[in-house]
Amino acid sequence: MPDDGTTESGLRNGAAKARPSSPALRFKCGWRFERAARREGATLIAGVDEVGRGSLFGPVVAAAVIFAGEPGFRHLRDSKQLTPAERAAWERRIQRRALAWAVAELDSGRIEVMNILQASRRAMLAAVAQLRPSPDFLLVDALHLDWPGPQQAIIHGDARSASIAAASILAKEHRDRLMRAWDTVYPAYRLGQNKGYATREHRQAIARWGLTPLHRRSFCLTSVLEQDDAPAKS
User: Fold this and answer.
1) From CA 53, how far away is CA 61, in angstroms rounded?
2) Could you tell me the residue ranges of all domains in the chain?
3) Among the four given CATH numbers 3.30.420.10, 1.10.10.10, 3.10.50.40, 3.40.1620.10, the one describing domain 23-174
4) pTM for this entry
5) Shortest CA distance to 10 belongs to which of 89, 101, 79, 128?
6) Which pLDDT score, from 0 to 100, does residue 99 have?
7) Smallest Cα–Cα separation from 67: which of 169, 153, 166, 170?
8) Residue 159 and residue 164: Cα distance in Å, rounded?
9) What letter would DSSP give residue 137?
10) CA distances (Å), 111 to each of 6, 27, 105, 161, 167, in order?
11) Please, which residues have CB within 8 angstroms of residue 228's CB and are 6 or more apart in sequence?
12) 20-78, pLDDT tens digit by residue?
């Protein structure tokens, strides 16, 4: 996809508010998985990730990113370990430096039909299908995809692979923009703040106002509403 011409201002050194137990502190995010794939002959390696699997509202969003070699990125890491300002700056930098990138989403209606796991896989495949040039190897956060080429599913991949971390940032930024837009349509649910996740405030709004057409209506939703508070996704 084309360069959006934005600047790199806003980047900071280090992670934002990383918790001691977080994968980002247990693992080092780098290029070793990409290097291993290149040793096997791959040249167009795509990192793939999704966001929104645990949300009560709206789509699941996936992104895929191919880099030509290893950009000189320092402190690139999982989107959850960055502040909103850092993620926005990284999004611009990734889009500018990537050989190819794409974002895809599956809405709440399709999630209800096929379940969130299959919807996540479908969104990931849709993002991969948009990449030009097409990848010859996938690095995927945790999941195996129904894709004909070679791939590697990496547990905590967004904290270990730079390409997957980049995909997580693009997916997160895209979905957060959607939530801010829907917040203006359904302000009672505070979607811009909770991103559709099961915070106490969001659950109380559902109890008072009911579900919108974009909430995920399922037995799973009922189960989540009975759990303890879920933290808002910053």
Assistant:
1) 8
2) 23-174, 182-225
3) 3.30.420.10
4) 0.86
5) 89
6) 98
7) 166
8) 8
9) E
10) 34, 31, 10, 27, 21
11) none
12) 455 555 778 999 999 999 999 999 999 999 999 999 999 999 999 999 999 988 888 88
CA distances from 186 to 173, 202, 204, 211 (A): 20, 11, 14, 10
Q: How far is CA 80 from the centre of its chain?
A: 9
* Side chain identity, residue 144: H
What is the C-alpha to C-alpha distance for residues 187 and 202, in angstroms, rounded to an integer?
Answer: 11
Report cis status (omega within 30 of 0) of the bond before 23: no
Contact between residue 213 and residue 112 where contact means Cβ atoms under 8 Å apart: no
User: Residue 147 is encoded by which pair of tokens?
Assistant: 């894709």
121 within 8 A of 145, measured Cβ to Cβ: yes
Rounded Cα–Cα distance for residues 161 and 155 (Å): 10
Strands 45-51 and 137-141: parallel
Distance CA 177, CA 180 (A): 5
What count of residues does the chain have?
Answer: 234
How do strand 45-51 and strand 60-66 relate by DSSP bridges?
A: antiparallel
Residue 9: both structure tokens together? 């201002």
Task: Summarize pLDDT for 106-116 with one digit per residue, the tens.
Answer: 999 999 999 99
Structural contact between residues 64 and 127, judged by C-beta atoms closer than 8 angstroms? yes
Cβ-proximal residues to 128 (8 Å cutoff; 6+ apart), any chain? 46, 48, 64, 102, 135, 138, 145, 147
